[in-house]
Amino acid sequence: MKFIITLLIALCLHTNLHAQTYAIVNGEEINIQEINDFMKNLEKEGSFTQLPTDQKNLILHQVIEKKLLIQEAKKAKLDEEKDFKETLLGIKNNLLVEFWMKKSFDEIAISDKEIETYYHNNLGEFKQSLQVKARHIVVENESDAQAILKELNSSKVDIQKRFIALANEKSIEPQANTRGGDLGWFKQGDMLEEFWQETIGLEENGYSKKPLKTMFGYHVVFLEGKQPAFTIKLEQVHSNIKTKLKMARFQNIVDEKIKSIKKNAQITVIK
After folding, report:
1. What residues does 66 pair with on adjacent strands?
2. Looking at 10-14, 33-37, 51-55, 92-96, which range is the least confident one?
3. Lower CB count within 10 Å: N or C terminus of the chain?
4. Strand locations in the chain (E)
5. pTM of the full predicted structure?
6. Residues 6+ apart with CB under 8 A from 211
């Protein structure tokens, strides 16, 4: 059986590479739509027609086997059993609700004027605070921090590279000593206030002039960059605002629809 299926796959791929039908199993066609649906269920990216030949063989082989199992299940008349019919009805009803919701959502129109009004009335949502990108070295005592500053002050190489090397070698902070003390981008409130004030007081590619003491130890800070505060432009968030407004309106539509049909329905709750 495996040998026959393999031959069938090779034949179909050779003769029908650009055709809509890729195999015929006991008189039933396997077309490109069925293959694409199968790939979608497997969450495979890309198009079947663009896959390498060996992957096409594998996918088509799996679809053929699935088709054979479907045919076998039908022979056993499993589709006529009560459990199957009840399960199918549940799936159908859930799908009907999903289709109704999708149709209702797709019919909602949001104008550019509504989007612009929301944007200007809610500018606070689109304001980005001043952010900095920094590194630090933290040690247990002030003398160790002073020794690090002395090494940086006398360094003849790139200060950033030297700082990273010292952080990896000497920092007691669990993660800082494996990533060169990198703290990434952060804004006020993300770190201790005294740490924030120390950092924004530095020039880009500059480092602390003296150790900063916090509850965690003594820090030497290196500032890699600053991103000034700014407001995101309307065109950058246009689609996000549209989706947000559609979702809000959709929720209202669903709520109102349920209220309306409940009012006219005959409902008996059996306790």
Report:
1. none
2. 10-14
3. C
4. 21-25, 28-31, 127-128, 131-139, 182-187, 206-207, 212-214, 217-227, 230-231
5. 0.60
6. 142, 145, 146, 149, 218, 219, 220
